[in-house]
Design brief:
alpha/beta; Spore Coat Polysaccharide Biosynthesis Protein SpsA, Chain A; 2 domains; 32% strand
Length: 325
């Protein structure tokens, strides 16, 4: 099976962190979100991983090749014309059954059944209270009949999570080509939902499969929520600390240095970070950051940033310096 993973988005809602790294490499619970996604794919018999990259795409390539053994093809999307356009760029690299995954959300689903032959497609969904911010699937008699992007009126509460299985990806490429030939766009972009709707209208069958967990990582609030969930569900780890109190769950890298501090709950501290004389809760401290005499909650501290003083809540990008005196 092929897996196409889309990682080219700019991640504007996670700035300043996405000025210096691609959105899928933003850290959560001790690992880039892309790492959590690729770990979920370990149950799939992957013949080829096809990764569509964009801004700072070389860092995506380095992360995958250094940490995973998937046979991987990297394709750059130089114009951000939408999800379907990104998939269209892979048309010379794939045929047959294909799983498509957006690289900006963490999910938990049983993907192992996809290793067997299927004649029908699957669109993974989660039931949510307010689906207006997401695309939704309308289902009749167990089959998806319509895909609606961010509906103003409640037509369904099944949010599409950005994971799709198509039994023959060539038919998806044909649908996308139809969109391009006829300039079928939504909000100026070629949306995957529109291509899938063309396939459905042509008689392709897609069934919904509800996932047990889906965590959107699109903004700081959502990222911290995902961090809390992962730490509470098997991703916690305690490295070595000195004269400090740890309130679990936390993730503390073995190479982090923590002294005279109270850390937790729901704190991730990445490799090489240094924390001294501080109190930190519900925060993500990235690689090489330094925190001195600070009180932080609900904060994101970038790589190699320096924070000193009585702050309460910060969203600090890489290599920044904040000192309160």
């Amino acid at each position: 099976m092929n897996v196409i993973i889309l990682t080219a988005g700019l991640g504007t809602r996670l700035r300043p962190h996405t000025y210096t790294k691609p959105k899928p490499l933003v850290n959560v619970a001790g690992k880039p979100m892309l790492g959590h996604i690729l770990d979920t794919l370990q149950s799939v018999a992957i013949d080829r991983l096809i990764c569509v990259t964009g801004y700072l795409g070389h860092r995506i390539q380095e992360f995958i090749t250094e940490n995973y053994n998937f046979p991987t093809t990297f394709i750059e999307q130089t114009e951000l014309l939408g999800q379907a356009h990104a998939i269209h760029l892979t048309r010379d690299a794939a045929s047959g059954p294909t799983l498509i995954v957006f690289g900006d959300g963490i999910f938990d689903a049983n993907l192992e059944p996809l290793n067997r032959k299927h004649d029908e497609g699957v669109i993974y969904v989660q039931e949510i209270d307010d689906p207006r911010r997401f695309g939704v699937a309308v289902v009749e008699d167990g089959k998806i009949t319509h895909l609606v992007e961010k509906p103003e009126q409640p037509v369904s509460n099944l949010a599409v999570i950005g994971v799709y299985f198509v039994p023959e990806v060539r038919r998806l490429y044909d649908a996308i080509q139809t969109m391009i030939d006829n300039n079928i766009r939504t909000k100026g972009e070629y949306y995957l939902a529109d291509a899938l709707q063309i396939m459905i209208d042509r008689g392709e069958v897609f069934r919904p499969d509800q996932v047990s967990v889906w965590k959107d990582c699109g903004n700081p609030t959502a990222l911290l929520d995902t961090n809390r969930y992962l730490l509470e569900n098997g991703r916690s780890y305690n490295g070595t600390v000195k004269r400090s109190i740890i309130i679990p769950p936390v993730y503390i890298s073995d190479s982090a240095q923590i002294e005279n501090s109270v850390i937790g709950p729901h704190v991730s501290v990445a490799a090489g970070a240094r924390i001294r004389d501080s109190r930190i809760t519900d925060s993500i401290i990235n690689a090489g950051a330094t925190i001195n005499t600070a009180i932080l909650s609900g904060s994101l501290i970038g790589d190699d940033a320096y924070v000193e003083g009585e702050f309460q809540k910060l969203n600090v990008g890489d290599s920044s310096i904040l000192r309160f005196s």
